[in-house]
Amino acid sequence: MEMLSRLFSENRANAWATQSSRPGVSSARPGTIGPDLAMLSFFANLKIALKIGVTLVLLIAVGVATSVISLTTLTKIENTARWTAHTHAVIQELNTLVSAMVNQETGLRGYLVSGNESFLEPYRAGASAYADAHAAASRLTADNPAQQKRLADLDGQTRTWRTDVAEREIALMRDAVSGCETSLATATTLSAFGSASG
């Protein structure tokens, strides 16, 4: 037994010598508390009620920190969702704007090909839809000066197209239709006059 005790003491001394030569390992002798164990010793000597109190304070601090992080993240997500919905609303109004322009062009083309005034209905409806969509897009982008400028440029080009191209072509076609109707009426009158005299 004595031999086992001596062997155990030698192994313990060898283990201490090996550990103390490694970095980060306490250099205190066996049986003493090293500087890295002093903190654990401090907590080991505290009363249980104090340990529970410190643990509760730490848990509450972690809970509050988690809540603050969660609230901040949720606020960012809500803000992002609001801006995404706003962006989709602007895009929808711009798509309505484009559709209104296409309807105006389609109505104009139909009238120019046929001379029939009923083909101007899509043109008129498109002009009304364009005005509504432009007003809505302007309201939605009131806080964005760059978009306001783009909308103003688009509106200027649209008005120029409407006055310089569409309205002139409609007027020319009306004159042509009116002239054709006059010529047709004259031809019919002459034909009727020729039939009556002959």
From TrEMBL:
<feature type="transmembrane region" description="Helical">
    <location>
        <begin position="48"/>
        <end position="74"/>
    </location>
</feature>
<dbReference type="Pfam" id="PF05227">
    <property type="entry name" value="CHASE3"/>
</dbReference>
<keyword id="KW-0472">Membrane</keyword>
<keyword id="KW-1133">Transmembrane helix</keyword>
<dbReference type="InterPro" id="IPR007891">
    <property type="entry name" value="CHASE3"/>
</dbReference>
<protein>
    <recommendedName>
        <fullName>CHASE3 domain-containing protein</fullName>
    </recommendedName>
</protein>
<keyword id="KW-0812">Transmembrane</keyword>
<feature type="domain" description="CHASE3">
    <location>
        <begin position="81"/>
        <end position="175"/>
    </location>
</feature>
